[in-house]
Design goal:
By secondary structure, the protein is mainly alpha-helical. The protein has helices at 7-27, 32-56, 61-85, 94-115, 124-143, 149-170, 181-191. The chain is globular, with a radius of gyration of 17 Å. The termini are far apart.
Length: 193
Amino acid sequence: MDVVLSPPEVLVAFRAACAPAIFALACFGFPGPLLAGVLLAAFLSDVFDGIVARRMGLGTGGLRHADTLVDTWFYVAAAVAMRIAVPGAFDGAGLPLALLIAVHVSRKTFELAKFGRIASYHMWSSKALGVVIMLTMTTVFLTGSPSLLVPLALWLGLANELEGFVASVVLPEWTADVASAIHACQMRVKSLP
């Protein structure tokens, strides 16, 4: 049986493949500009998978769910690669990193219990965070030095996770594409009898 992926699925699969690639390249000591190139390619695949899906009418909940899982997979691998390539990359960022991990795991656990799968909101704050993460990691990879952008990106990541947590608490059922926690609250009010 042949499996044919749609163009947005190919972009998501490409980003998934970038995760072990960026990790392996960092482990083998490849230069920062190459790591930044992999990061940029994965970031662009993340931007364009949604655009292509919407234009082709393929923006399904399943694709958004896969996109969310792959985003997490890739950016965790990229963060580990950054730590390997620039050992001091997370110096001074222990608190926001620990809080981000704790809230992320708590939120995903809550969503699995409530919805049976993790949320795929694609909030405005997530899009902004993606740009900040890409710029932060690119700076670290290209300079080979820690950056003050790292704790900033982690604090913004924590704010994004908390906003997503609010949406998950408020929404009565799994819903894709919720622009913000305010939108989630408005959706909840509209669903009340």
